[in-house]
Amino acid sequence: MQLRLLAPIVLLFFTGSAFSFERGAGQHLDDTQHPEIRGLLQSSPLEIREIFRTTNAKRSILLDRDRSLLVTDARLLAGIKFRDVMEALAARAGQSAESLFRDWWRTLGAGSDSEVSAGIACPSGMDQLQLSPFALNKNFEMQCDEGLAALVARPEGADSPIDHFIVVAALNRGDLSKLDRASQAANTSDCGEYRLVAALDPYWRRHGGPKNIVQLYIILEASIHSRSLDFCVAIQQFWANLSTAEVQKASADLSHFFLKDGWLSHDGVLDDVSDPGDFQWRRALSVEHLGAGEAPGNGQVRTNTFVSPPDHGSLSARWTLREFEFVQRNDVARLEPASLASSPQEGVTSLVSQANSVLADAIRSQQLELNAATFSRLGFTVSSDLNANQQTTGPVALPFPYVFGGNAADAIGEIANKPLTEMDMKNRITVMSCGGCHRFSNNQRLGFTDVPVMAASNDFTHLEVICNADPCDTWSVNVSTALRKIFLPQREEIMRAVLGAAPIGHQKQ
């Protein structure tokens, strides 16, 4: 499933209409929180220990990053089938797994006239970049993707695409917990995110599946509501327990965490029966944790795809990153497109416009965060009115998507503190975007004391599935250098601080 493309051209365009601050129903409400760098991740280990009252604690805890932070071992994931995931979501959404999946992908194309009129599908035949009915940010273009909609535009009686996805990773993103430092208590919003990654079997396209879908990753990013600091600690203890659990037990526990309700003890044990003091557990994968809840920034589903237009070869495949959220529509919840949080539309950065001026103001107001000494202190967010509906590239080459001009370029020149340069500032803003983190910031200078140069992704992905058989019954996952060398060590240090464990390198042997 490895794929290498020529460097891509970025296809991100203004509509050309007047810029308007008008929110759609699915746009992120929380403009101050970055989806990947927020909360505990922007705190020092000492600050975290003060919040969780573990400053003097030095518990000896064995943490295996491949068990407690990023699980890619097929044996541990064997208890989670993608069909089970869709069934669990459908049960909460008030519809069947097949209808939930079909309606989700019809937001990108292949809809009938009646579905388009009802506002639940993109029109068929719209494979050009033009305004889709699901463009949540009406300031910018969004693409109806006929090539990707072929996933559900299948003959009656054909096998379901749901059964051709493989769950390839589970991630503990407790580092994204949003906490109230002033009161030293958990914010009512969340205890971080807990993610599953599923990949479409790449060999299916050889055996009856859509031939134009080269790669398709689905990332379900469930935000768990916080009840107290102790509840957040119990979740982290659950993940810590996976480091030493037998394979069969670890597999069963992961399945329970994501797919079943139950009870969670203070020492991180999930069970069907409650004991005094246990926390009630609602499965991680529920519509409430993936956008349908009342709290802002309440989880999402992302897709990372390589798709060629119908009747084109795989060399014409374009990469697209999209976000979706559950939205309640009458008696059912549906997955619908959302704009990309903290990823400004490309034209905003360069074209002289009202939007460019708004971006310039955001740059000036976040001078301290953009001049941070360390990578974990970097911060840059923009109003959702500036966010792209998607980030897409074609098969030919630019080094990165953002060309800065107008007032935004002036603002960058004003805030760069020596020895940082204007290019360092541009690179820092770019790495905070979806496209930057996934590809365009690879090997770019950032100028941090701990991360002088950004380590590389796997060329558009941080997890790359490599199939060892056809069909993809046995597989492995190639983890990006950036994830191994930068992100996972940061997350382990935060997890240790939350649990009161000794810092990395100070554990008892």
Commentary on this structure:
This protein has a domain at 39-343 and 470-499. The protein has helices at residues 45-51, 65-68, 74-77, 82-93, 97-106, 113-117, 146-149, 229-241, 247-259, 346-350, 354-365, 367-370, 406-415, 422-431, 434-440, 481-499; strands at residues 70-71, 129-130, 142-143, 165-173, 179-180, 185-186, 193-200, 213-223, 262-264, 270-271, 279-281, 300-307, 318-329, 332-338, 391-393, 463-467, 475-479. A hairpin with a 2-residue loop joins strand 13 and strand 14 (332-338). The strands form five sheets. Strands 1, 4, 7, 8, 12, 13, 14 and 15 form an eight-stranded antiparallel beta sheet that branches. It contains 16 helices and 17 strands. The chain is of the alpha+beta class. The protein is globular, with a radius of gyration of 22 Å. The model is unreliable at 1-32, 126-130, 184-188 and 396-400 (pLDDT under 50). Helix content is 27%, strand content 17%.
Q: Which properties best describe this structure?
A:
alpha+beta, 509 residues, three-stranded antiparallel β-sheet, 16 helices, 17% strand, disordered N terminus
**Quaternary state of the chains:** single chain
What is the number of helical segments per DSSP (H or I, 4+ residues)?
Answer: 16
What spatial form do the alpha-carbon principal axes imply? globular
The class by helix and strand makeup works out as alpha+beta
> Whole-number average pLDDT?
81
The N- to C-terminal Cα distance equals 40 Å
